[in-house]
User: What shape does this take?
Amino acid sequence: AVEPPRSASQMERAVKGLVTGRYGWVIFTSTNAVRAVWERFSDSGLDARAFAGVKIACVGEQTAAAVQALGIRPELVPSADQSSEGLLADFPPYDDVLDPIDRVLLPRADIATETLAAGLRERGWEIDDVTAYRTVRAAPPPAKTREAIKGGGFDAVCFTSSSTVRNLVGIAGKPHPRTLVACIGPQTAATAREFGLRVDVQPEVAAVEPLVDALAAFALTMETEADARPPTKPSRSRLR
Assistant: This one.
């Protein structure tokens, strides 16, 4: 589940910085971050014009779509790997001639990793790493659902972030080994493997629709392969 930060002071300073020209870039790493910033804008009586003169980068197509829905066109979306690593690969180093402002606003979850912020600093940028929202563990599901998860009652499980992996394992336990595991991107897949899960499906593009399509294609392939197998002959001992 997603909740507002415990203190609004960081976000208030960040919004003020956007209005006063403190930032050269804003980087959105999730649709939740876009939503959190926009809600703060609305509370402050601001709109998309507050982004005037600021470049926008998004970690993937889904996040970019959320930004575009607000009437803003991102300047940068990773061309290949849609992850923090992919964004870093495409993000320009700071140039004191070309970049009049050296500071980047990075609004994100309280449990976000340091990969992106550290990589940007290595490229010469100053970072305001702001907690835009908190990821909190959901209430445990009913006992019947927990048993179904651990006992193989579900054909597949889809993880859309590293936090969904941690939360599911924390509140319900690991999915049964015969359950297909689909992960939205490389970082989520890495977290799943850290918990000892086998990752069966990972789409080329880190977004929900490609994830669903990849899982459906994988299931269809499994079904086709199963139909193509010759029937198993009974053993001689069973024929007697």
